[in-house]
Amino acid sequence: MRNHRARMGVAVICLAIVAMLAAACGTSSSSTVRTTSASQKVSGAVVVFAAASLKDAFDQIGKQFEQANQGVSVKFNYAGSSSLATQIKQAAPADVFASADTTNMDTVTNDNLASGPKNFASNTLEIMVGAGNPKHIKSVSDLANSDVKVAVCASDVPCGKYTQEVFKKAGVTVHPVSEETSVSSVVTKVTLGEADAGVVYTTDVKAGGDKISGVTIPANQNVTAEYPIVALKDAPNKDGATAFINYVLGPAGQKVLQSFGFKPAGK
């Protein structure tokens, strides 16, 4: 009887040990799966639709992102945010959308093409003039002078919408000689001397170097532009889209943006 009880005790202990080992193996296996999943690297092309005012900064961010993720290439499509939103709504293949305003981002999210955009930078407006400011423009009110040829963005483009807000705050009526589809086109007009002045982003004046000059717009007349970014629901490269957005929002991406004159989101 004693031997029987001893054998039963040994059997119970063995079963307990087997159960413990099985649980341990199961835990080890699931941990391995999670670790492997977390360590998977992104690959392929990441297609980014971005506002024209982001070009210089995003070109730099793209290069750094590719260096940090071997085997990944970033392809950019730069244009006015309204044009990009239209292309996305017409099913243009893209992974990421970075807009110069929340309005055009809303047109994409409201169509259920993306969700949860995050603001990653902000910007303000400035008057761009030719090098040396030959027309001696000192304020927004000077743009109402009929002798001054002014270029602005079209009203459906973020920089155009912001420009109209500036004119309203300044209490002036400006009759531009051209209304462009992107801020980069306004920069070109002023740089080539086809316009005496243009309302652009502060970052555009910074990037213009000695080819142009800038006239500051006071804070009480200025507008803050918020830049949101989102991964599109039908993104061909979802992992790449997420990784790129995380890079833009992270320290490395933010450092590049600030070096080009952008301010942190909400500033």
Q: Can you characterise this structure?
A:
By secondary structure, the chain is of the alpha/beta class. 45% of the residues lie in helices and 21% in strands. It contains nine helices and ten strands. The protein has helices at 2-39, 55-68, 81-89, 102-109, 158-170, 183-191, 202-208, 238-249, 251-259, and strands spanning 44-51, 72-79, 96-98, 118-123, 125-130, 150-153, 178-180, 197-201, 212-216, 225-231. Helix 2 (55-68) runs antiparallel to helix 9 (251-259). The model is unreliable at 1-39 (pLDDT under 50).
Short description:
By secondary structure, the chain is α/β, with parallel strands linked by helices. The chain has helices at residues 2-39, 55-68, 81-89, 102-109, 158-170, 183-191, 202-208, 238-249, 251-259; strands at residues 44-51, 72-79, 96-98, 118-123, 125-130, 150-153, 178-180, 197-201, 212-216, 225-231.
